[in-house]
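Why does this matter for the project? Reviewers at the last site visit asked to see concrete outputs rather than summary tables. In response, this paragraph embeds two records directly. Each consists of the residue sequence and, immediately after it, the corresponding structure tokens. Nothing has been edited or filtered.
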Amino acid sequence: MTDQESLNQQPLTEHLAELRSCLIISLTAAFVGFALAYSVIQPVADWFFAPLVQVMPEQKSLIFISYQEGFFFYLKLALVAGVLLASPVIFYQTWRFIAPGLYQHEKKALLPFTVVSSFCFLGGAAFGYLVIFPPTFRFLLGYSSNFLEPMPAVSEYFSLALFLLIAFGMIFELPVFMVFLAKLGKVDAPFLVKNRKYAVLIAFIVAAVITPTPDPVNQFLMAGPLVVLYEISIIAVRFFVKKPLAVLAKAEGDDAE
């Protein structure tokens, strides 16, 4: 009996019980991460604010314009940090729930995808924080003058910084996404090479849309990694995808017969 047949014979109640177990463990891990992050929230906030504080004029600081804004900012920041801390557990629980419904070759491929995608996302967020944040906020604050005094609000900075961190995290998932598509048989290395010029064009369009500043330097800092990641995707597809999953599934079915 194959894994898929075994799964089809399991009652719905077992699937729901498995889902509930994964959700409880994931939420518990996120809550523990939230509690740990909140216990050291001030150093976390100092780290989070550092790119903006470093380029702000002297004697200036962020402001909050409502009584509860500062309190809720710390809660939201602790929640985001807690989810990041708990992400290995959350990814593992997701894999544990999906794994029974996969073929054996798919189970072997999914866990490495999960681990690599986690590293890529965190690497992209780190790239955004270390490389993109300083010139971006320096540019945005460069319009201050005797008549324009910068007074950035906590909530606005949080929204923009979180958006950029998530955007760069997702951008750095490009090689993983391309390998996944190749595994499904949707693309291959020759296809990616043939469409390289369109990928470069799309990279600069995406950079123009996502980058919060109109200057070409910051847009190039966004588009450049996309182009490099596309080239890495071609190498990864060539190296890691020898046969699509559909071919492996057929071979596995023939062996079972």
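We now turn to the second protein, recorded in exactly the same manner.
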Amino acid sequence: MSEYDAPHSSGMHVVHDGPRQAPPLLLIHGSGAAGGCWGPMVPALAGHHHVIRVDLPGCGQSPPAPSYDVPAQAGRVAALLDDLGLRHVAVAGHSSGGYTATALAEQRPDLVRSLALISTGPSLDAFLPQPLLLRILLGPPFGPILWSRRSDAVIRRGISVTAARPVDVPDDLVAGVRGITYRAFRAVLRRNSAYVAERSVPERLAILEVPVLVIFGSADPRWDPSSAHQYDAVPGARVELLSGVGHLPILEASETTSELLLGFTATDH
């Protein structure tokens, strides 16, 4: 059974699953999403971990923030873990949530036991032309107008166009996405790009002494799937390519992704 927390001093809505005495596992969603994106994986993960799902500021049920710089987002996550009294946490990030996870390890290595990056683009040169629906929803001139008028069906379609397989989009994810303003989402995208432009994710990870698992779909339409091998430059990193899976392994192949993550967290020390 899930436990819902009121926003912490970090300004984030938090959901806990699994026994509090179990090893902690923090799940960080990507831009344009919310903690509900992990829903299909939670039952398996909560059998082994104290699972902590966050809505990053400006997403889901968390209020907007003055800045969406990736290091600032990581600082808020660190404050949350400090509030909870947690150390040596296994951290998994989906898509740009992997940037926040990486920045957290850069800032506070005492908090991060291991990193799992799922569909996290390693560098800007790996970014692919986006699906037409996303270009319309996200860019001028129609984006600002259409954003506030999105139906649940349009939100589901906007999420599923990044998948290579049919997916069931959880209701709480749709509700979480509805809570994101156009202004906040565009700001998050800009700051994510700035973080990767400054230094690629593999470059950042290569100087951190933390176990790394990378999971990528072989049919990801957002990031060149072959770019997953840029992470081979990270000492000891394990890279897993899921055949026929797009940008959403957490929804498209939740069982396989859960098994990979659980196998990794069982041996990440």
